[in-house]
Structure to design on (466 residues):
């Protein structure tokens, strides 16, 4: 009986093939299977096929059957056969499936310019230094590093992160309580699953934030309720009947302020009094300009605060590298729910080397200087070109809030689109159950454009503003 897999055991220049030579005869079945593989694009033009001897041996059929099938397809123009070159798929136009009708829609990231917040300048990713760190890490990694290992993550990375977070962010980070995850959203997903399993029903969130985070909580079975907001920022001191609170206390996203000291203390008191849990999103804590660093809330009570950090803003979101420092009572649950290590070991080892070698600190300092210059250029340009627009939330982070005249937010977003600029209004980030957005505004991610596009992006923004 013919096998469906051809593994090209005897032909090192061949390829593995998945064939189903079904039909009234082996020759016809093999011919049809090969023709269909070429027609559907599974075998692309120029692909070298195994020799007739090798394919026959792999499929357990006679060599003449394969040779005849090849000859038929050569005659039909599907394959080519040349002395010294073997049998290859012919270069011919193969009609693909008809395209499904779609409704045109604007995708902000596809416009020529973008100030959509959430990513750093991806063109500035330190490729050379990251490559060096990866090579050093691979050269010194123990063999067991490539096994299943500790579901909390590689010990090299957990130790390096614990040292860095204690030094830079004031986190009380024991490597035994540090869990590597695939970015902030993955960590939040795990925590919401644990909260729901423990009987929690409500997660209090800031009035403005990311709907993807609220949706994660909802899918885990939690209800999200927005915290009140006033001129001093989020009123986190009384989360009502919530079982947990999600906050970005060092730099609220997107409004940009830091949680006031008395409110930090009050929400920690609430957690101690009720047994609630605080989830601290420290998404861009390394980037500050006109103020002293605001330390992590976790330092006030490591038993009631989960600290979440990520390399998405400092390096790149595509690395899918994040971390959590969890209370001792949660470690076992996080490991159980996590279902094993989700982050590749090579990336973990590379980041550990990047941290311990000092390359991470050097990169962050250089990025901080570059983004501060952009922020300053933004402020100067608006003062000259749009003096009625007030800029807020700029003491830290990678984005700014541009306060607009009342009733103009949507028209400015539309005008920006006409200028080829993707930008989002503040109302886009308001929780559905929160009070109305505090004024019309844009949330401008000035770190997003690459250097070569920065001038054009800034010009497009100024043309769109009233």
């Amino acid at each position: 009986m013919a096998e469906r897999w051809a593994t090209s055991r005897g032909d090192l220049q061949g390829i593995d093939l998945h064939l189903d030579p079904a039909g009234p005869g082996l020759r016809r079945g093999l011919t049809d299977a090969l023709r269909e593989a070429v027609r559907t694009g599974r075998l692309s033009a120029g692909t070298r096929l195994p020799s007739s001897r090798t394919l026959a041996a792999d499929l357990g059929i006679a060599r003449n059957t394969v040779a005849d099938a090849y000859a038929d397809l050569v005659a039909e123009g599907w394959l080519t056969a040349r002395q010294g070159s073997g049998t290859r798929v012919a270069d011919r136009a193969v009609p693909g499936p008809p395209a499904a009708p779609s409704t045109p829609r604007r995708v902000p990231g596809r416009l020529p310019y973008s100030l959509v917040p959430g990513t750093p300048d991806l063109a500035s990713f330190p490729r050379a230094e990251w490559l060096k760190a990866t090579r050093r890490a691979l050269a010194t990694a123990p063999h067991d590093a490539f096994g299943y290992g500790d579901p909390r993550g590689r010990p090299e990375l957990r130790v390096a992160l614990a040292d860095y977070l204690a030094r830079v962010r004031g986190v009380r980070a024991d490597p035994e309580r540090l869990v590597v995850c695939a970015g902030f959203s993955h960590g939040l997903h795990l925590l919401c699953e644990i909260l729901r399993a423990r009987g929690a029903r409500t997660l209090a969130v800031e009035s403005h934030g990311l709907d993807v985070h609220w949706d994660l909580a909802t899918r885990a079975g939690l209800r999200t309720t927005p915290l009140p907001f006033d001129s001093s920022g989020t009123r986190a001191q009384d989360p009502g009947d919530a079982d947990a609170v999600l906050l970005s206390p060092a730099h609220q996203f997107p409004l940009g302020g830091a949680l006031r000291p008395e409110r930090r203390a009050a929400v920690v008191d609430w957690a101690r009094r009720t047994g609630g849990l605080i989830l601290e999103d420290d998404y861009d804590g390394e980037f500050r300009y006109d103020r002293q660093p605001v330390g992590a809330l976790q330092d006030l009570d490591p038993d009631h605060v989960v600290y979440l950090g990520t390399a998405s803003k400092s390096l790149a979101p595509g690395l899918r590298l994040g971390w959590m420092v969890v209370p001792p009572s949660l470690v076992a649950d996080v490991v159980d729910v996590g279902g094993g290590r989700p982050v590749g070991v090579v990336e973990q080892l590379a980041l550990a080397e990047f941290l311990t070698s000092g390359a991470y600190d050097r990169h962050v300092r250089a990025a901080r200087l570059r983004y501060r210059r952009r922020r300053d250029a933004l402020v100067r340009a608006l003062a000259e070109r749009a003096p009625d627009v007030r800029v807020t939330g700029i003491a830290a982070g990678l984005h700014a809030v541009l306060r607009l005249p009342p009733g103009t937010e949507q028209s400015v977003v539309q005008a920006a689109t006409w200028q080829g600029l993707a930008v989002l209004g503040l109302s886009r980030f308001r929780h559905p159950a929160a009070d109305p957005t505090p004024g019309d505004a844009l949330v401008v991610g000035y770190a997003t454009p690459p250097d070569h596009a920065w001038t054009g992006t800034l010009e497009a923004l100024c043309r769109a503003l009233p």
